Amino acid sequence: MVSSRWFARRFPTLRTSQPSVAGCYGVFLSADLFLFFAFYELVIVPKYFLIAVFGSTNKEYGAMKLTLYSFFGGMLVFIGILTGYVTAGSLDLNQLSQFQFSPQLQSWAFPVLFLGFAVLAGIWPLHTWAPTGHVAAPTAGSMLLAGIVMKLGSYAGLRVAMNLFPQGFQMWSKWIVFLAVVGIVYAAAVALRQRDLKFVIGYSSVSHMGFVLLGLGAATALSVSGAVLQMFSHGVIAALLFAVAGRMIYRRTHTRDLDALAGLNLGRALPFAAFTFVIAAAASMGIPGFSGFAAEITILIGASKTYPLAVWITGAGMVLVAAFTLRALKQSFFGETKPDVHLQQARVALDPDWNEQQPITTAEKCGACLLMFTTFVVGVYPKLLLDRIMPAVEAMRFLK
Question: Is residue 194 a contact partner of residue 200, using CB atoms and an 8 Å limit?
Answer without folding.
Answer: yes
